[in-house]
User: Which sequence fits this backbone?
């Protein structure tokens, strides 16, 4: 990472622009090199300044943020673009990712997510802000259809109920997209998932019978994937059988299989961080070798919230391509 990160702030509403700039000043590594309020001017400033980071509103005069981003990609291709917007629709986020954005931060969460999100983005990840409940389920489809191949997402939920709700929406979205789904979750979470899925999809029982929706008990999966504190690659490779069988039931072109679950989170809760990280790495290897899979790892926020656990969150994020805010 560069010692000084030059940041261009593009926002037409002055109070928010001032708030963003004040927040940036609290991090000595971030240098505010320009503030503009117009989409066309943003393109011109980006070409002139070649900033490392551009914080870009969507609702701008002359050119909106999406239009400006397409042009900025041509005149300042090395700049990381982060949309800061009140828009929360999955369609907008999908288009932002397709353009090549490195992140999306909701204006409602600026105070909490701006600096952590920027830090994650500068480390090489995509960061997507926490979203209203009705939007969360669409993220699986957004990442499926975006230009990012084989996304490996880390999603952090505030409690068990939020985790079940989030996974339910993601699984439903993936099935609607045509992907097969493998869910490695606890038995109680699986029962809750099935109940919630069945209320909106009468075909869930058929999906389970046909192998399009596959349940792996997380306790058994962890026992299979890990021995002591070290995950075992040879035993983990047995998961390839599940992937092959699930892929055969999919009707999506890519990715054919959506894998979600709690294995790394459970291992982390048991104090075996190295095993949790190793499993994340092994799934990354599967993604490269097999292809056509999307990964969604569910953690609880209590595992990261205290300052002495910040390094754990950093290690977890390093293994993923996309980080979802919470």
Assistant:
């Amino acid at each position: 990472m560069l010692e000084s990160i030059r940041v261009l702030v593009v926002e037409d509403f002055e109070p928010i622009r001032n708030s963003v700039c004040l927040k940036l000043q609290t991090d000595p590594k971030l240098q505010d090199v320009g503030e503009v309020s117009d989409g066309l001017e943003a393109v011109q400033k980006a070409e002139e300044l070649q900033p490392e980071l551009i914080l870009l509103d969507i609702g701008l005069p002359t050119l909106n943020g999406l239009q400006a981003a397409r042009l900025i990609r041509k005149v300042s291709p090395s700049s990381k673009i982060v949309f800061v917007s009140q828009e929360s629709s999955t369609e907008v986020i999908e288009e932002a990712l397709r353009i090549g954005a490195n992140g999306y931060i909701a204006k409602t969460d600026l105070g909490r997510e701006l600096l952590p999100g920027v830090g994650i983005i500068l480390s090489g990840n995509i960061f997507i802000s926490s979203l209203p409940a009705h939007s969360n389920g669409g993220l699986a489809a957004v990442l499926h259809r975006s230009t990012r191949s084989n996304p490996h997402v880390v999603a952090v939920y505030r409690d068990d109920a939020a985790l079940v709700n989030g996974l339910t929406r993601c699984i439903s979205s993936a099935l609607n997209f045509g992907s097969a789904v493998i869910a490695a979750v606890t038995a109680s979470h699986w029962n809750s998932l099935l109940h919630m899925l069945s209320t909106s999809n009468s075909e869930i029982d058929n999906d389970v019978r046909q192998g399009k929706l596959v349940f792996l008990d997380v306790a058994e999966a962890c026992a299979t994937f890990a021995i002591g504190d070290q995950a075992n690659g040879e035993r983990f490779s047995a998961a390839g059988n599940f992937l092959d069988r699930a892929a055969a039931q999919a009707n999506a072109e890519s990715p054919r299989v959506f894998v979600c679950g709690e294995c790394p989170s459970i291992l982390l809760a048991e104090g075996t961080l190295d095993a949790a990280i190793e499993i994340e790495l092994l799934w990354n290897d599967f993604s490269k070798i097999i292809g056509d899979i999307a990964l969604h790892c569910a953690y609880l926020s209590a595992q990261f919230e205290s300052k002495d656990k910040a390094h754990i969150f950093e290690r977890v994020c390093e293994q993923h391509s996309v980080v979802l805010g919470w």
About this structure: Residues 5-126 form a domain with the Rossmann fold fold (CATH 3.40.50.2300).
